[in-house]
Design brief:
The chain has helices at 7-15, 20-28, 80-83, and strands at 2-5, 32-35, 40-49, 54-65, 68-77. It is of the alpha+beta class. A five-stranded mixed sheet has the order 1-5-4-3-2. The chain starts with a strand and ends with a helix.
């Protein structure tokens, strides 16, 4: 599966201090995918931040067309139970 980041995602990742390698891993090999609005989906990946000693959930909103996933935006949250299905 090919992964392409839109400029908005790159900007959000930089502002939110989320490594693009983690974003790519989330889109390529998510722990979970949940439907979102219309034709969008959200890829989830749990990860442990050793500096903060806390578990987070990376959420990447994306659109899938054929064999390409277009990453639209990304954020991390500590509210894993809220989003995990």
């Amino acid at each position: 599966m090919k992964v392409i980041f839109l400029d908005h995602l790159k900007l959000q990742a930089k502002e939110r201090k989320i490594n693009l390698k983690l974003v790519e891993e989330t889109l390529s090999n998510p722990d979970q995918i949940v439907p979102n609005l219309k034709d969008l989906k959200v890829a989830h990946k749990k990860y442990f931040d050793e500096k903060k000693n806390k578990e987070y959930l990376i959420r990447v909103v994306f659109k899938e067309e054929k064999f390409i996933r277009f990453g639209i935006t990304v954020y991390k949250t500590s509210k894993i139970n809220k989003y995990w299905k």
